[in-house]
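Technical appendix A lists one of the benchmark inputs used to test multi-chain prediction within the project. The record comprises two sequence entries:
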Amino acid sequence: MQTPTRRTFLGICLGGLAAAGAVAAAYPLLSYLAPPSTGSEGAKVSFPETDIPPDGAKFFDYRGSTGVVIRTRQGQLLALSAICTHLGCIVQWEKEKQDFLCPCHAGRYSPEGTVIAGPPPRPLAKLPFVVVNGVITVG
Amino acid sequence: MTIIRAIRRWLEVRLGIDELVEKQLTGYLLPRNINAWYSLGSVLLVIFGIQVATGILLLVYYVPDAQKAFSSVSQIMNDVPFGWLIRMSHAVGSNMMVAVLLLHMLSTLFMGSYKSPRELNWLTGFILFNLVLAISLTGYLLPWSQLSFWATTVATNSAGAIPVIGTYLTEFLRGGKLVGPATLGRFFAVHVALLPVAIALLVGAHLFILERIGVSTPPFGLKETTNTWQGDRFRYEGHPGGIPFFPNYLLQDATTIMIYLAVFFAVVFFDPYLFFPPTAFVPADPYRTPAHIKPEWYFLANYQTLKVFPNELLGLMVQGAAMTFLALLPFIDRGRERHPLKRPAFLVCFIGGIILYLAMMIWGHYS
């Protein structure tokens, strides 16, 4: 093996400096381009119960995604994620049929979110919610 | 290592990189007495690269809409991680670009490098200078601050002094009777699409011409071959026995670039608002002109000239004449002598011109 010379040592130092410089340039660049954290992790969404029309649905932004609260014909309240588990489209609440339809590939879900028909592999995710003095709080 | 060597060998057989390196880098000889001033062109190339890169990054978050422009810039400054760094690099970089460009022009003048046969180099450089001023002016409007708004109002207004077409020209520049959302749209398009491409093309032409004719020999220091160019047919000015571009002069380029970056980042990190008056931080208000509105430092001399002459048209004509004279200097100054001390009349004009420019600038700043 060749003994390290002054030239190789300086070469390594120069390479190290260049690498440090590249990191110093890349860190702010990647931070600048990275999507901003919304800071909404664990955030709760509240709205009055009257926002939901009779046997209708209310859609809302929920932790950077979309949630929905429905009131069934029997007057039962349900909170679900509105993201279709097939390919991520937003489901629609069909008032007449009392079920969810995903318009993208005709996936159908019951009001509880279980798959009735179509390609969705999983039921809609249930969201925890409480009703206090007529105010619904999801989260 | 053998794999890298094999790939290199494979590419070498197909592309002949070694020959290119020999011709353009190691075998590209420069005059023995070449000095550090010649590296300012490389510095400008680096600055242009930084401006393009930071400009593209700013486009990610900037919204070119009169309603949202100011808040999008505030968002870049306050919310986006390192947004301040990208924006301040772009804003400070534009000021530094003009400053380095002025030094580059002054050194070319001082050493007589603009002279025959390098008229085309001077002309392309001169057009580049004007394009850089134009890109600075159009970029100035984009943050849609009080400063942007009123500086653009004043700048576009001066076009109105041109007889016959003046009023029409002002409205054409503004996209309306007054500076407004339409102005932002057209300045944005010119700033991000038209001028960068024009500058890149002209930089290419500038470098091509430099490469074809060869680097000029500085008029002082070690003597080498005498220039025997007669002006009747093309001849590449070679420098036998000179300094190889790579690694020798590239090291000088790198040194000057590092010095520049040190100054540049010192301003960005320690005095980022050096070039920003307080009106730069107030959103544009078309109904309220701020007091003492002044242009950027590099337009102060022009601004003061316009104020000195009682007639705006006369002021514009004087400046136009001075710029035309500067552009055509290599065609007017036909003498072959390039040493400044052997050209006393030139030296007096050179120093007098700098003093006049600085005096007008300082006067403009304090008036």
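The interface with chain B takes residues 28-29, 31-34, 36 of chain A (CB under 8 Å). Strands of chain A lie at 45-48, 57-62, 65-71, 77-81, 92-94, 99-102, 107-109, 115-117, 129-132, 135-138. Comparable benchmark entries are summarised in Table A2.
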